[in-house]
């Protein structure tokens, strides 16, 4: 399904396909129609990126160990999507993938493009909160350009949360659940958060930036101890590291599958509810004006949380509530 | 109320205050604490911008005729605002002031900042339509950062339309009216349009860009003849040119006054209705699915147009309708 492989991707492909033998610089250069100097430069780039590549001036190159970093050419190898991730912009380190994606979206970058970074220096949560994003996690932002009104933009958060929870369950087998509106929990601790931002006219979304952060392959003590009852990482929960490249590939594929149902939001909601942590629980809503305790009973078609308070069902939108589950304390 | 005047503004101020005599380079340089070369450079800049300034190496400089362009230092002279227009970014020519303002807003430019251009090369109307923006008009975009939800962003269009209609009436005495949602008419022809765009989280507006275009000082035949029954210019209607600097100053002051009532939207709506072209008229709503004819009876508190159709009042949001007045044909 891939649209095109550029030369860098082809070099990597050839190295992967020929791990049992040496590929000479000449062979690579002939196959790809580029100079041997170009090949040599790219090999060095891969080494810097953490790949172990044996080489000998006489016999050529051989890939020993792939690096588990998130190079676009690595993610796009065998990526089975049509839109999401067909363009990937990679940073070793960045302030915020959402901010970078916003700028790129404004400059016209197409739907499906993904900004990914090994590390965010100023990762953002909702309402300007900090979001800790160390090495070993997945920090990416996806540009979507659906033809919808701004009032429907909330669907993007549903799409992302569903895609993340499914990917985590598929690759790590932990019992991940979605805490409305935008967190993924394992047990009752946060492993992932979503920040959706948009650029829009009053009548029409120009772009959505769906930022996703997943605490994947790093130990719990990366976080301050004061947070250990609120957050966790997949690695901490399972003791196993997951290939980050495979995780990102699976995630992008899930996003695409769910995104295709954007206009059948009922379908998305139905699946979403199966993974909900929030529904059926007693929740506390603090909407600045008042504090309300009630049972979260359902999600409305417009994405609002329906809470039964004194036998009356009330609607709450993400912006109005900070949501506390009775069983434990956790920020949202 | 002005917060600060930079040196360039001070030079212009001194020239204005001393139009009856020559100001020597030395005097200017002493008063402002800058070199005579700096003074000389700025005088040249003003001349290039269209100011007629007499000079003599012996006796100094004297302002003969101010230029009617929109230099920030000219607009900010005697501008009576606290927020709107305290920072002005000026372009002789630009693709789109809204696009420039968006980029600046994203880089953190503060509330009230204004991007203004003598001419837009790719002015934008709603939903990507073209917006003709030749020399002699007013083309500006204002950055607002209210603490509101995206659903309330529509208020910005009400604020801008009210400010524009009041400014036109004040300075030209034509009977301008507001055609819902975002045009200003004289007679039944468009003299001004508004394009509001936003950057937002799902719960909170980050910035609003309120783009305004006003056909002020240029003749009607700037437009293609096919449009002459749909558009007009203040100059065509009155035969008089208005100082563009004064127009912008008055406009920014009106915007600020109306913007201060953002949280009392009822007040804004009340005034807005007094200038409405649409209310009380039979309108045709075309919302892709169906064509509805009814009487526009009121504006709802959320900014929707209320239309009485077969004795039932229905709500229409700007995105859903193209609106046709029975008396004439006009795009919106």
TrEMBL record, chains A, B:
GO molecular function terms attached to this record: ATP binding; biotin--[biotin carboxyl-carrier protein] ligase activity; DNA binding; transferase activity
Signal sequence range: none
Enzyme class at the top of the EC tree: ligase
The enzyme's E.C. designation: 6.3.4.15
Record has Transmembrane as a keyword: no
Alphabetized Gene3D superfamilies for the sequence: 2.30.30.100, Bira Bifunctional Protein, Domain 2, Winged helix-like DNA-binding domain superfamily/Winged helix DNA-binding domain
Binding annotation for biotin: 96-98, 120, 190
Sorted UniProt keywords: ATP-binding, Biotin, DNA-binding, Ligase, Nucleotide-binding, Repressor, Transcription, Transcription regulation
DNA-binding region extent: 25-44
Cited Pfam families: BPL_C, BPL_LplA_LipB, HTH_11
Catalytic activity of the protein: biotin + L-lysyl-[protein] + ATP = N(6)-biotinyl-L-lysyl-[protein] + AMP + diphosphate + H(+)
Keyword Ligase: yes
Family: Belongs to the biotin--protein ligase family.
Classification via NCBIfam families: birA_ligase (TIGR00121)
PANTHER family: BIOTIN PROTEIN LIGASE (PTHR12835), BIOTIN--PROTEIN LIGASE (PTHR12835:SF5)
Name of this chain's protein: Bifunctional ligase/repressor BirA
Species: Orenia metallireducens
Organism phylogeny: Bacteria, Bacillati, Bacillota, Clostridia, Halanaerobiales
């Amino acid at each position: 399904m891939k649209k095109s492989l550029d030369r860098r991707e082809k070099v990597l492909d050839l190295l992967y396909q020929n791990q049992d033998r040496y590929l000479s610089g000449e062979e690579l250069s002939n196959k790809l129609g580029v100079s041997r100097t170009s090949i040599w430069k790219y090999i060095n780039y891969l080494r810097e990126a953490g790949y172990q590549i044996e080489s000998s001036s006489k016999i050529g190159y051989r890939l020993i160990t792939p690096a588990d970093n998130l190079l676009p050419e690595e993610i796009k190898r065998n990526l089975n999507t049509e839109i999401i991730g067909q363009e990937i912009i990679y940073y070793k380190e960045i302030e915020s993938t959402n901010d970078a994606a916003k700028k790129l979206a404004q400059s016209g970058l197409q739907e499906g493009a993904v900004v990914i970074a090994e590390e965010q220096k100023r990762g953002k949560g909702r309402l300007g909160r900090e979001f800790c994003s160390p090495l070993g996690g997945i920090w990416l932002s996806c540009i979507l350009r659906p033809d919808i009104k701004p009032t429907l933009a909330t669907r993007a958060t549903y799409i992302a949360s569903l895609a993340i929870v499914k990917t985590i369950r598929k690759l790590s087998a932990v019992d991940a659940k979605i805490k409305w509106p935008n967190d993924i929990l394992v047990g009752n601790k946060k492993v992932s958060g979503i920040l959706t931002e948009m650029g829009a006219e009053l009548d029409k979304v120009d772009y959505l930036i769906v930022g996703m952060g997943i605490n994947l392959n790093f130990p719990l003590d990366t976080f301050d101890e004061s947070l250990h009852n609120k957050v966790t990482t997949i690695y901490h929960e399972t003791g196993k590291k997951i290939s980050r490249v495979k995780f990102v590939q699976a995630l992008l594929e899930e996003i695409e599958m769910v995104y295709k149902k954007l206009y059948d939001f009922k379908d998305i909601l139905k699946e979403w509810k199966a993974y909900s942590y929030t529904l059926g629980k007693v929740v506390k809503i603090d909407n600045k004006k008042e504090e309300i305790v009630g049972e979260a009973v359902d999600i409305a078609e417009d994405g609002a949380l329906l809470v039964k308070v004194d036998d009356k069902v009330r609607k709450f939108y993400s912006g109005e509530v900070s949501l506390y589950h009775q069983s434990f304390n956790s920020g949202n």
